[in-house]
Amino acid sequence: MTLLNFLRNRETTRRDEQQTAWQRYRELLERFADGMEVDSTEADLILEQAGKSESDLQRDVSLLEKRIAWRKQLDDGATAEADAIQADAAIERAQQAIEKAITKYQPAIDQALAVKQSSEHRRTIARYARESLSGELLDTALAQRIETLNRELRALQADRRELEEKTAGLNIDYWQRKIESHESAKAKLSTLDATSKAHHAKRIAEARARLDEASEKSRRFERELASIQQQMTAIERELAECRERMLLP
After folding, report:
1. Half-sphere exposure of 137 toward its Cβ, with a 13 Å CA cutoff?
2. Mean pLDDT by 10 residues, the chain (249 residues)
3. Does pTM top 0.85 for this prediction?
4. Are 246 and 137 in contact (CB under 8 A)?
């Protein structure tokens, strides 16, 4: 055997060994990607023969899994294309079946459908654009101001609920009914029943004092509620302005 033939044979043998090592390594990748059990001794030998490290194995398995998923998506795309063709054919047959009945209105219907489809698409884009403009602000001061206003608004809402609860707890209607009850009972007594009249008069006076106190608090609470409402209105107006500014580039 000449040197040239020896070198050629050696190169052929080396390529065959490399190809065999690669094929076994590829099979190992596929078994790992499929979640199959693999003998560790066998795997170590295959890695050694292929000149691969553990990090190479992890990277290649991850890539193979991605490629398998991509291939499935590619195949599904071909199926989707066939489905679309079939769907188009079905639509065409249906349109031909009803064409005579709607010839007069078909152009208007087609135009309206096209406008509606375009409008829905644009509305979807607009909603996403609104969310994006509101969520990613260049003006950090504006974002901080909105956060401050929302915090102030929540505090005012809590104050308003507290005042409303306090107003309900004044029991103004109760004291009014109390006065009316004692006045009615007092009016029914004879002029000679001075003790009972005095008793009702005392209760009326006490109830009037409580009613006056409750009414004064109610008026104060109403003023405070009006002030809170005024502040809330101003904050809500500013928030609305801020939200409009959020939508500016």
Report:
1. 17
2. 55 60 86 85 85 88 90 86 87 82 80 89 88 82 90 92 83 72 67 64 71 75 89 93 87
3. no
4. yes
